[in-house]
């Protein structure tokens, strides 16, 4: 039973859904597992081939065709398995809070993966963007609202599966949180440094690659360049006709574009 519990836990974290919908009650009283044979096979090989190695188990899952599938819902699957209980496609899901915060720091070029141990830090303090969320400090008597908005586990009880909500407060947090604002500013500075400030086209390409790990489409590049040009034109003179400039230390148009990219569903969701 222990090997099945571990396999179901690892599968759930990688695939987005476990073999059973009652992970805290895997047994006679819980729901029967989908793909019981696959669960038994993985559990047996985890013990006898992997020798209880979690590294072996993670590798076995991520190199499988099941894990590498797209989340696109085909017409035939809509009829056969609309809830994806049989894992015929990937489950589209939002990044958990910790992974999302680390992604912000990585896109900004601030994350330092070399840290090994040390005291816990405030994950919302912009001075700690270099520290992975693994080392976040949490006061269970005063859980920050930002973390509650993004569905962290209740620290006062055992949580087998985190709830996943989609509420307006999440989008508002992305627009107003000092953590996201600072990450956007650093991302823009990173893209500008890599591209050179005089080359708007290269800045957009570097921005997309840093945040989304891909080159922007022609339509995205055209829209982004047009918006940057319009913002530059609007900010070139103030209301009294005096010429003004945008210091890159402020939240300028480059940083605002970076924030818009970080706020996209593509950055926050796994497909």
Mean pLDDT comes to 87
The best one-word shape is globular
> Strands of the biggest beta sheet: in what spatial order?
1-2
| Computed CA radius of gyration, to the nearest angstrom | 22 Å
Report how far the terminal alpha carbons are from each other.
31 Å
Helix count equals 12
Largest sheet: 2 strands, antiparallel
Kindly describe this structure:
By secondary structure, the protein is mainly α. 48% of the residues lie in helices and 1% in strands. Strands 1-2 form a two-stranded antiparallel sheet. It starts with a helix and ends with a strand. Residues 237-249 have low confidence and may be disordered.
Question: Brief description of this entry?
Answer:
The protein is mainly α.
Write out key terms for the chains shown:
mainly alpha; 271 residues; 12 helices
Topology (SSEs and partners):
Elements: H1 2-15, H2 36-48, H3 54-62, H4 75-80, E1 93-94, H5 97-107, H6 145-149, H7 168-176, H8 178-195, H9 200-212, H10 218-235, H11 253-262, H12 265-268, E2 269-270
Antiparallel strand pairs: 1-2
């Amino acid at each position: 039973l222990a090997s099945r519990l571990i396999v179901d836990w690892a599968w759930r974290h990688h695939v987005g859904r476990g073999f059973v919908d009652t992970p805290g009650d895997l047994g006679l009283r819980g729901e029967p597992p989908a793909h019981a044979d696959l669960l038994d096979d993985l559990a047996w090989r985890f013990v006898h081939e992997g020798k209880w190695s979690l590294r072996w188990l993670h590798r076995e899952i991520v190199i499988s065709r099941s894990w590498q599938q797209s989340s696109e819902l085909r017409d035939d699957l809509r009829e056969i398995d609309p809830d994806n209980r049989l894992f015929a496609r990937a489950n589209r899901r939002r990044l958990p809070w910790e992974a999302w915060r680390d992604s912000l720091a990585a896109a900004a070029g601030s994350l330092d993966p070399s840290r090994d141990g040390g005291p816990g830090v405030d994950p919302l303090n912009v001075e700690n963007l270099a520290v992975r969320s693994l080392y976040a400090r949490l006061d269970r008597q005063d859980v920050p609202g930002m973390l509650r908005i993004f569905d962290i586990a209740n620290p006062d009880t055992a949580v087998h599966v985190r709830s996943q909500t989609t509420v307006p407060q999440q989008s508002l947090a992305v627009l107003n949180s000092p953590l996201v604002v600072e990450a956007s500013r650093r991302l823009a500075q990173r893209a500008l440094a890599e591209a050179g400030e005089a080359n708007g086209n290269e800045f957009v390409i570097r921005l997309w690659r840093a945040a989304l790990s891909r080159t922007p489409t022609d339509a995205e590049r055209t829209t982004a360049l047009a918006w940057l040009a319009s913002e530059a034109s609007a900010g070139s003179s103030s209301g009294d006709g005096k010429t003004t400039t945008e210091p890159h230390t402020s939240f300028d148009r480059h940083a605002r574009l970076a924030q818009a990219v970080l706020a996209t569903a593509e950055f926050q969701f796994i497909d």
